[in-house]
Design goal:
By secondary structure, the chain is α/β, with parallel strands linked by helices. About 40% of the residues lie in helices and about 30% in strands. It folds into two domains: about 200 residues, Double Stranded RNA Binding Domain (2-Layer Sandwich); about 80 residues, Tetratricopeptide repeat domain (Serine Threonine Protein Phosphatase 5, Tetratricopeptide repeat). The strands form two sheets. Strands 2, 3, 4, 5, 6 and 7 form a six-stranded mixed β-sheet that branches. Strands 1-8 form a two-stranded antiparallel ribbon. Strand 5 and strand 6 form a beta hairpin. The chain is flat, with a radius of gyration of 30 Å. The two termini are about 55 Å apart.
């Protein structure tokens, strides 16, 4: 009897392995949202962007004039520059990045500059008042106003000489030019209500170029113009703030079941085309199947479709159903992952 029991047990395990080996799962790459370092309240879904940074000292600096200054100072420059195009660029880049994140609807008005009577770019403007914020938000039908309060950039350049490759003709001279843009901005997010809610943000960083060449002229021609460098700093500035307050994205993989049901598996071509709602409609037809194996697989796939549609709670519900209908390690692992994603929000 003892020997028979052991044989039965191994027969059972063999049958279980055979059955589970028939289960077919495939993987798909997806983009998963990651929470921002400083999340904004979910009751703010739409934002209008305004620019309060430009004092009377701001000008749309001429590229040729900037280059003449650089050359006249023998490529050695250390100046704070207030460029109006750069200030506007950082606002537009921010707006585009926020919109592309999928988190916000963004409005950038044609008339987006608010008056700034400050004598110095370093002087921080007093906060806007509730009636003014409410008027702007009502006009553009948004939940909040995000304002660029201060913006400036400092450009530093210098060059040095050294020695390059050694050849039969001797040691060649080498020139190195360095360009650095240090940018700084302050922002305020105004949310109107019974009382005005204000959140503040600051961006401070640098970008850097290093170019080498056999002559000073050749090396100079490789570096960005001062105007280009200022605009690059503005672009970086806007992107940094966007990454700070809006979710990011990272690539992950997800699994789904190939059910071996011809009609149900027509949804696979749809999910590969990112048509999750259409795939969901097909799978729903089989969600009450009398076969627990098929039903559990369909419920798992519906969980994936729900996650891709942005409904984590619904995805968890479907995964729990799949887990209860017929246990699988895949549903157990997916349930843990979904709960972790939900708790991180």
């Amino acid at each position: 009897m003892r020997l028979f029991y052991n044989q039965s047990r191994w027969i059972f395990y063999g049958l279980f392995a055979l059955l589970t080996s028939c289960v077919s799962m495939e993987k798909i790459s997806i983009q998963v949202s990651t929470p921002p370092p400083r999340a904004i309240s979910n009751d703010i879904q739409s934002i209008v962007l305004m620019n309060r940074s430009m004092t009377s000292a701001f000008k749309n600096l001429n590229q040729d004039s900037l280059e003449n200054i650089l050359v006249s100072k023998k490529l050695s420059l250390d100046e704070l520059l207030l460029d109006s195009l750069a200030a506007d660029t950082t606002l537009q880049v921010l707006g585009h990045s926020l919109y592309e994140s999928g988190r916000f609807d963004v409005v950038i008005p044609l008339q987006r500059n608010l008056q700034n009577t400050n004598v110095s770019y370093l002087t921080k403007s007093s906060s806007l008042k509730l009636p003014q914020v409410k008027q702007v938000c009502d006009e553009f039908k948004v939940d909040a106003l995000l304002s660029l309060e201060n913006f400036y950039e400092n450009v530093s350049t210098y060059y040095q000489t050294g020695y390059g490759n050694v050849s039969e003709y001797g040691v060649s001279k080498e020139y190195v030019i360095f360009v650095q843009i240090a940018f700084h901005s302050n922002w305020k997010l105004y949310q109107p209500g019974e009382k005005l809610k204000i959140a503040t943000f600051e961006v401070r960083d640098t970008i850097f170029w290093e170019r080498t060449g056999p002559s000073l002229q050749a090396t100079y021609e490789k570096i960005p113009t001062i105007k280009e460098a200022l605009l690059n700093g503005a672009i970086e500035n806007g992107q940094i703030l966007a990454s700070y307050i809006s979710p990011g994205w990272k690539q992950q993989t997800r699994s789904y079941f190939i059910t071996k049901n011809t009609e149900a598996d027509k949804a696979v071509a749809l999910l590969k085309s990112n048509k999750w709602k259409e795939a969901q409609d097909i799978w729903m037809k089989f969600s009450t199947s009398s076969s627990t194996t098929l039903r559990s697989q369909i419920e798992f796939n519906l969980a994936l479709a729900s996650e891709m549609e942005g409904d984590l709670k619904k995805a968890i519900e479907w995964t729990q159903k799949s887990f209860k209908t017929k246990y699988s390690k895949a549903s157990e692992d997916y349930l843990m992952l979904l709960n972790k994603l939900l708790n991180s929000r």
